[in-house]
## 1
Amino acid sequence: MGRLSSNVRRIACFACGAAHDPTVLNTLCTACGLPLEVELDLPRAPLSAVVSDESSLWRYAAVLPVPRSEAVSLTEGWTPLLQVGDRVWIKDESRNPTGSFKARGMTMAVSAARLLGARRLVAPSAGNAAGALAAYGARAGIPVRVAMPQDTPRPFVEECRNYGAEVVLVEGTISDAGRWLAEHRDEDDFDVSTLKEPFRVEGKKTMGYELFEQFGGILPNVVIYPTGGGTGLVGMWKAWNEMETMGWIDGRRPRLVSVQAEGCAPVVAAFESGSETTVPWKDPHTAAYGLRVPGPIGGFLCLRAIRETGGTAVAVPEDALWEAAHRLSASSGIDVCPEGGAAWAAFERLRDSGWIGPDDRVVVFNTGTGLKYR
Ligand SMILES: Cc1ncc(COP(=O)(O)O)c(C=O)c1O
């Protein structure tokens, strides 16, 4: 069996700091039950000495916990940054394998799980994570079981089956799907749910690195991100902290905007009430399925990331997010998913209110393809 990168210093709890053995498969903190973080020994070297010329997120292998030689890869990341207006860009994650940013987390999680000896990979999903896990499991030769809500659009379900995964459809939301997997747990199962293992965030953080490189060594002023479980936000926040440690940037950060649907907005509600933790959302509903996460385990981390960067949180009405997705697709040629539509609607609202100023450079994330929702 191979090994994680030698730059892995330790694996510790994001919340209580308890250290965990990095040579075994870890899920949540054994002391307090909250998510774990991979802490890395980072070089004190400029970007040019760290990055390779590979056209995938593995160009940042020097700051990733899995060696390039051990990567389970389908050539993910290094997605286009497309300018769509004055000082506004779309980071187009629909261009990843399986059509969403979930590929970034899964290349890392599946690579690490294979190194550490996982025998079967399981996860509940709103759709995109399941498709990505099924593909990377197939690539790694590790069996996959995914559980999704019954009302998940068929293309997501068929995609997983096509990659040879076992698909279970469960009444309710992603939380119910997670409960089903826990109740039917097999001793071979390793749970790669959002933030329940520490490596998906390591893949997602490459979005923060890519923005820096694609803007020529600076960061934008505002980054707008649709939030479900929150790994996108948390990953970029981690990337920027690492970049400061390496001396690439000072203490300033892009203001992170967390966008949710009005029908399921636990992070927005907690942000507005001044709370440090989220409260499970009752009766969650939105057809932007990636945002239908009523009780994100990393909610406290999203709130930290938003507040530490001087950001904000916005809830978008259901019809506005679909309308915005269509408008952005029709005006730009980008294949915009409803979650990306929510981010675009939030951008328009924040620009109109003056929260985004005329000099701000803004990145709006289109997190996946819109095609699978039809
Ligand atoms: C297209 C899309 N956007 C955004 C999200 C939310 O991502 P996260 O759970 O990392 O907050 C998801 C999650 O399923 C998604 O599929």
## 2
Amino acid sequence: MHVVIINGSPRVQKFSNTDKIIQSFVKGLQVSGSTYELYSLSNRKEWDAASEAFSSHDQIIFALPLFVECVPSIMLEFLETLPTERQQPAQMSFILHGGFDEGHQLRLCERFLQSLPAQLGCTYGGCLVQGGSFLIRMRDDERMKKAMTKKLDAFSKMGESFAAHGNFLTPEARKFTGPEKNPKIVHLLFRLFIKRLVRKNFEHFAQQWGCTRPLDDKPNSIEEKR
Ligand SMILES: Cc1cc2nc3c(=O)[nH]c(=O)nc-3n(C[C@H](O)[C@H](O)[C@H](O)COP(=O)(O)O)c2cc1C
């Protein structure tokens, strides 16, 4: 099987969490001899080639981060450039991920993605859905290594599964999301302890990236200027 993969994130490939997910996914995909070609919509120079690949291949995966509860606008813009009819049949599948970890917050976007293939003359090959991707790009940091390696390894396994089944319509793909909603006790623990820990981690990463002001700094707010 040959798969065209299109990264729908506006973030440049080097820093894109979606790209890290794709790199893990294709490791699994390639185990049984499948091949792939990858296009990143953050690089406008790749749009023509991505469009050509979309029209001329029969297995297409869009991998995208949730942006403000739905599809990033750069991907919507690209979709509008695609033809609505095609010469040969094709299947469109999706890898949808987002920063927050509960599954339910990705379902609205999943509904939109379900409706998309028919509008572009394709069939729907399912949507792999998972939250909790904020810190994937920090996977080499000691604090994050274990959790992020585990997360990315799971995407490799789903690459193997996609190569075997040809879609994400399997029970294992549905199970992949994890909890739709965290139990009340987790919400309580989050408010009491975990929030502070998450905040500390974000401060740590911000400092590593050269940020010298507090994360809740509001230099332009009227109150602070008084
Ligand atoms: C402008 C913006 C909006 C976002 N909106 C959401 C959101 O609504 N829900 C969510 O879970 N994550 C949201 N995120 C987090 C991203 O989905 C997450 O960080 C993802 O890993 C980014 O992937 P990328 O690095 O490939 O762009 C948002 C991020 C940005 C920058």
## 3
Amino acid sequence: MPTGLHLPYVAFFGRTLAEYLDMFCISLDQLREGSTLDCPSGPDSFVAEACAAGCDAVGCDPMYAYPPDELRTRGLANLDESFVHIDAQRAALTFRDYPAFKQAKYDAIARFSDDYALHYGRRRYVAASLPKLAFADASFHRVLAANFLFTYAHQDFGGLYEGREFDLAFHLQSIDELARVTRSEIRLSPMGSFASPPRPHDYRDATIARLQQLGFRTELVASNFDSGLAAFNDVLVARRIVRAH
Ligand SMILES: C[S@@+](CC[C@H](N)C(=O)[O-])C[C@H]1O[C@@H](n2cnc3c(N)ncnc32)[C@H](O)[C@@H]1O
């Protein structure tokens, strides 16, 4: 059995805009150019904060099928439960500042819940599940995808999940779908395994190969983000190669 953090379910767990900028090695100025899909968005406050800062951002998540009050209640309960699991596995974590990480999750869900209530039923938050998204081809300039793909692969393959449904085939179908809905760029994180000792995620190289087949140029960019959960914090940046006509 691999060591490292493990979870029995997909946590409704979300990051802040500041965490997203670090994690994806991207700036607000870059984000202001063109539209962004955050997939999945969970209870992160990226969409709310980015829109407030003048970006065009849309979040999608299967949990957006729930109305605001129910999602706020379910989300907070899920977050409390996830921290019971994570607190119990502190020895597997490498956080520089665990209390700050934890606080950021509660800040994110509070900001998200308020914004979700304001924008419920409109374009900003869309109920959707990989590997099939409810968006037309090339709907977004870029897609940011963090902490569902790769993270919820089974532990034997570099993820932290105890289930096996998000296997390599699921990941490659999801990559195809992210490529379908983006015009220009896909950023994926994390690229490292949750196992100890650290290693690249088992699905990383197959993902890179698939993106290249789909016509993207790929680059692994080292991030300073302190995920605390996995040792490799690279972000995979895939840019669509525009062919001359
Ligand atoms: C840990 S959160 C990640 C949120 C955010 N991207 C972040 O990094 O903070 C994982 C999310 O995956 C969502 N999820 C579960 N199954 C999914 C699926 N089949 N397709 C897309 N998202 C899914 C969950 O609802 C949950 O909100």
